[in-house]
Amino acid sequence: MNEILPIILYVIGAIAVVGLSIPVLLKSRKSSKNYSTTRGSNDPPASVAVEERTDSAPAATATAPVDAPPLDESDVAVDVPDDASGLETIQVDTPSPVAGRLARLRERLSKSNNMLGKGLLALLSSDKIDEDVWDEVEETLLLADLGTEPTMALVDALRERVRILGSRDPQQVKAMLREELIKLVDPTMDRSLTTTRHDGNPAVMMVVGVNGVGKTTTVGKLARVLVAEDKDVVLGAADTFRAAAAEQLATWGARVGVPTVKSDVDGADPASVAFEAVKAGIEGEVDVVMVDTAGRLQNKVGLMDELGKVKRVIEKLATVDEVLLVLDATTGQNGLTQAKVFSEVVNITGIVLTKLDGTAKGGIVVAIQKTLGVPVKLIGLGEGPDDLAVFEAESFVDALLN
């Protein structure tokens, strides 16, 4: 019996060892099968991007680093279809025609600005026009941001014409007021945009202004205006400081089939981006290159100097034909201060007045033109993609007077 006991214990021990080894081996096999997709914290970084496939989407091409575990061929599909079926496509818009755009938006403009026009008409059509009435006329014009000098000139002209006319007929008064306002807005100023190739190069536009006035949106909307006129356009995303500014501009361009030159590096040199955009426009023989710049406060000397640098770098390749200053109409007289400083750094050729639909201060058009001697060329009248209109003096005054 004593001789049999060791044999029995040996057999029992052997069975125990075999029994314990079975789940361990099974577990190891299971781990081995999933090793290519389950990675520990100490494993090399995975460089394999595996997209979930659908019937219409192309399969992803998988690549693996040299030191990565071998891939199970059954887990990754490497076939690439010959066609591009199933890829996302961007629907290209057809911008609305430019001709008559301001006329179509006149109702919106008249509703937002009729305090000026209707207020003046009510005062001038009263039975008795005395000094108190003229004081109210003057106050109305000043509140509309017409500016002191233009206001005095308009009041003096109206005084004289009312005295000579000797009538309070509303139609006569309205016609008189319309004529004087048109003189102030000055329809003789050249409001055309340079959008034609010259000297073998595209026309180049820079869009400048302070933060928050809508420069990038203005560039996108202006691209739609140019596309509606059958112009070939390239956009340059030289606003490299504001997060997502380049993507925002590229989205505007893609909507109308216009390419955008941008940097993938945050904080890239804006002058370099502008240079590459103009270079691409020259090589592509396009009609217009528009360069969006970063917003900057007019009292920041370094930023303003950088704006001058962007312009100088562009001019190594082509002439800068237009420098459009974007101003927010709701800022009133503060916009004049901005305009003066920008005009000292770069040669402003035109004003884009945005958010004019949200203010009763239509007189800012006159004040800016009188201060800078630069015409308002475009006005923004809403949030819609085609709510940017070429400025027309007579249509603008007619909208003010409803």
What does this structure look like?
It is a single chain. The chain is an alpha/beta fold. The chain is built from 13 helices and eight strands. It has helices spanning 4-33, 101-104, 106-124, 131-143, 148-165, 170-185, 215-228, 245-255, 270-283, 301-314, 333-345, 364-372, 393-400; strands spanning 203-208, 233-238, 260-261, 288-293, 320-328, 350-354, 376-380, 388-390. It has an eight-stranded mixed beta sheet, sandwiched between helices. Strand 6, helix 12 (364-372) and strand 7 form a beta-alpha-beta unit.
Secondary structure layout plus pairing:
Blueprint: H1 4-33, H2 101-104, H3 106-124, H4 131-143, H5 148-165, H6 170-185, E1 203-208, H7 215-228, E2 233-238, H8 245-255, E3 260-261, H9 270-283, E4 288-293, H10 301-314, E5 320-328, H11 333-345, E6 350-354, H12 364-372, E7 376-380, E8 388-390, H13 393-400
Parallel strand pairs: 1-4, 1-5, 2-3, 2-4, 5-6, 6-7
Antiparallel strand pairs: 7-8
Helix pairs in contact: 3-4, 3-13, 4-5, 5-6, 6-13, 7-8, 9-10, 11-12
